[in-house]
Design goal:
Radius of gyration: 15 Å
Number of domains: 1
Strand content: 15-25%
CATH architecture: 3-Layer(aba) Sandwich
CATH superfamily: Glutaredoxin
CATH topology: Glutaredoxin
Shape: globular
Distance between the termini: 49 Å
Largest sheet: 5 strands, mixed
Helix content: 40-55%
Number of strands: 5
Length: about 120
């Protein structure tokens, strides 16, 4: 950073990421961040989700983390909870898959069945 303006831009980006994690939710994404998930890329999955939501200016999505979800062989895992739809658990994720999930499921409401581990209808 060379100028005050650079610092202000960095601050705004950080605040925008915080807002994504605390927003008024109609969609909630929970990332499994147990040690098994972290070991196989859960941090990268979390950062990719935040990046993709930020690029799309989606502010009605809350992203949070939890400990072990219990399906270590399927890590990294995320749960996607959309009001009025079944809760969906996706597994064996990487950055490309997460970007597709955001585009299809979060933006367009279409569940990406290729990586669904579990669906729970309320």
């Amino acid at each position: 950073m060379k100028t005050i303006e650079d610092l202000k831009q960095a601050k705004q980006k950080a605040l925008d990421k915080i807002k994504l994690r605390q927003g008024k939710e109609s969609i909630r994404i929970v990332v499994g961040m147990g040690t098994c998930g972290i070991a196989v890329g859960a941090r990268e999955v979390m950062m990719t989700i935040l990046d993709e939501l930020g690029k799309r200016n989606l502010t009605d999505v809350t992203v949070s983390q939890t400990g072990c979800i219990g399906m270590c062989a399927k890590e990294p895992l995320i749960d996607v909870k959309v009001v009025g739809q079944p809760d969906v658990t996706y597994g064996n994720l990487d950055e490309a898959k997460v970007r597709q999930i955001v585009a299809q499921h979060i933006v367009n409401g279409i569940i990406v069945n290729n990586w669904v581990i579990n669906k729970i209808r309320e």
